[in-house]
């Protein structure tokens, strides 16, 4: 149970103003995501092509939410990201 936790709507607008504390957490979340991706790839027998790392932002702190290894709930073919994969 988290005291004083609150739920906000997902922000979809590109020009939405994000809280300063959230913006300051982005470099930390990016590094943590890359560390998770690298660790999983060193432990797996086959390279992982897609890994989405979701975070929850609770009481101005980021928490790891879930790892997703499939594209489009396994209903769509993943063809890579142009220029990246």
Please provide a written account of the structure.
The protein contains one helix and two strands; from the N terminus they run H-E-E. A hairpin with a 2-residue loop joins strand 1 (52-58) and strand 2. It has a domain at 35-72. The chain is globular, with a radius of gyration of 15 Å. A two-stranded antiparallel ribbon has the order 1-2. It is of the alpha+beta class and 85 residues long.
SSE layout:
Elements lengths: L19 H24 L8 E7 L2 E8 L17
Antiparallel strand pairs: 1-2
Characterize this entry briefly:
With 85 residues, this protein is of the alpha+beta class. Helices cover 28% and strands 18% of the residues. The chain has a two-stranded antiparallel sheet.
Name the descriptors.
2 strands, alpha+beta, 18% strand, two-stranded antiparallel ribbon, 85 residues
* Main sheet properties: 2 strands, antiparallel
Calculate Rg over CA atoms.
15 Å
How much β-strand is present in the residues?
Answer: 15-25%
Total helical segments: 1
Unreliably modeled segments: none
**Structural class of the secondary structure composition?**
alpha+beta
Overall form: globular
Alpha-carbon distance between the two ends: 40 Å
Q: Please estimate the helix content.
A: 25-40%
What's the mean pLDDT score?
75
């Amino acid at each position: 149970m988290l005291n004083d936790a609150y739920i906000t709507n997902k922000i979809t607008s590109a020009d939405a103003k994000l809280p300063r504390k959230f913006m300051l957490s982005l470099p930390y979340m990016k590094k943590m995501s890359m560390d998770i991706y690298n660790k999983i790839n060193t432990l797996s027998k086959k390279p992982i092509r897609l890994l989405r790392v979701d975070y929850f932002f609770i009481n101005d702190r980021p928490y790891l939410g879930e790892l997703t290894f499939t594209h489009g709930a396994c209903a769509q073919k993943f063809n890579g990201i142009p220029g990246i994969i």
